[in-house]
Amino acid sequence: MGLKALSHTDPFIQANTGELCIQFARHPDKPLRIMAQLIHCSHDVSEDCSQQILQQTRDFQIYFVIRFPHPGFFKFQIYALPYTEPGESLPSVYNYLLEATQVNRGRNGHVMCFPQQFAQWKEGCYLHTPMDGILYPSGSNQPTADTVPFRVTIPTAHAVAVVVGEDWTHLSKVNDCWIGQVCLKPYWGIENQLALCAKYNVDDGNYGTLLEYRLAKR
User: Fold this and answer.
1) DSSP letter assigned to residue 97
2) Which of 14, 37, 151, 162 has a CA positioned 20 to 30 A from the CA of residue 205?
3) String of b and e for 60-98 (b: at least 16 CB within 10 Å)?
């Protein structure tokens, strides 16, 4: 299949910090479609917690960052299929049993999910910041208090923008990253979502959504 476990070769992992990163290497000549699923399976309850996974790719390595929403046992399953093989159904290629002893809590003590990831995100992208899927107002009156820095790696993009409502903030290319600052102060209580979008064809004006964040209410 061209996918090799690097960080965790044992199918049982005990996580004691509330967050876990599982790292794989993929063959550079065998591009894969990859997705993962996280199922909480403690006390005869099965709950899909896949929104707690952030899939990252960099230098032919794939990172699955997991934030545990509950203590207990989880099934973590990875599915993959070469791009050269047809079919919508991806077979299971790795299965882990995870035991979480701690819960990952973010701002205000809430369990924090990652931004929603769309298909193109999983084709080689890496998120540096912001990692939290829900963006909160700062509560400060400072002029720059609600300015959020964005930094992402999207290797084949020709342009990248952050979109809130009808407003677009275009990010700048610096080395292998797209970076920029987005002021969210005008949108609290008005807009509910923020999208990170990319254009892949220099002659085409269409942008595709890669990540989607939620904007918290004041």
Assistant:
1) E
2) 151
3) eebbbbbbbbbebebebbbbbbeeeeeeeeeeebbebeb
Contact 136, 214 (CB under 8 A): no
Same domain? For 78 and 149 the reply is no
Question: Half-sphere exposure of residue 2, counting CA atoms within 13 Å on the CB side?
Answer: 16
83: Cβ–Cβ under 8 A, 6 or more apart, which residues? 31, 32, 33
- For residue 48, what pLDDT is reported? 95
What are the structure tokens assigned to 129, written together? 């910041």
Report yes or no: 164 and 127 within 8 Å, Cβ to Cβ.
Answer: no
Same domain, 71 and 128: no
Asked whether the CA dihedral 56, 62, 67, 73 is positive or negative, the reply is positive
List the single range of 121-130, 137-146, 189-198, 201-210 with lowest mean pLDDT: 137-146
Cα 93 to Cα 78: distance, rounded to the nearest angstrom: 6
Q: What is the mean pLDDT of residues 39-63?
A: 92
pLDDT in tens, 62-113: 999 999 999 999 999 999 998 888 777 899 999 999 999 999 887 667 789 9
The CATH number linked to 81 is 2.60.40.10
Residue 186 lies in a domain: yes
Q: Give the pLDDT of residue 159.
A: 97
